[in-house]
Amino acid sequence: MFLHMYHLSNIWFGRFFIASIIQGAIFTGLTIFLVTSQVSFLKPEISRVIASGNAGTWFLLGYLMYLGIGVFGVTITAFIYSHLSSNLGLDQRPKGIRNFMVWGHFILMNSGIVLTCGLLMYGGYLAGASMLPVDVGGKGFTSDEAHTILGPLKEPIGYSIITLAIGVLFGGVGFIISLVQNKNILLRDQTSQYGTRKKS
């Protein structure tokens, strides 16, 4: 019933909504892994790495970004596409530049957020853990030594952020094109109706 209310038949609403479910499942699985590892096999624990600050903040940033953009952001995007189609009457199967923009938005946004947050969490944990004392499972690294772990990841993280940003940009440009096209359609319809009334 809920999905029917928001027009699951809308192709791009459906695609983004399914993507948000997948992203949510990944986030839930990650959270379960982190909680179970906290009390069992992962040393040093995630809580220690985050509490230590320093490089551990990269992990926290990646985790929160994934929740905010990967889960909530993709879900909100699905409802925006539903609004464009159901309330503004736009074509569910965009053609030309709009089709290119929508596919770019879908692919680059979803892949970009996974890569960005995955690399942030991976590098943040390894570098943060390495700076903890040896007796809690760390390596006692200094900031400079920990940078040897994070350094090689900066470029891949940068490219991933660019990928995400391009995806969001494609979506924004696509929305603008959709609104302009809708405005032109409304003006054309109004002109046609005015001409018909004038003849009659």
Structure notes:
The two termini are 45 Å apart. This protein has 200 residues and is mostly helical. Mean pLDDT is 83; it is low at 1-9. It has six helices and no strands.
The average pLDDT value, as a whole number, equals 83
Please count the helical segments: 6
Gross morphology: elongated
Strand content: under 5%
Distinctive features:
0% strand, mainly alpha, single chain, 200 residues, disordered N terminus
Write the layout of secondary structure elements.
Layout: H1 2-5, H2 11-38, H3 46-51, H4 56-86, H5 97-130, H6 143-199
Helix pairs in contact: 2-4, 4-5, 5-6
Put the structure in a nutshell.
The protein has 6 helices and no strands.
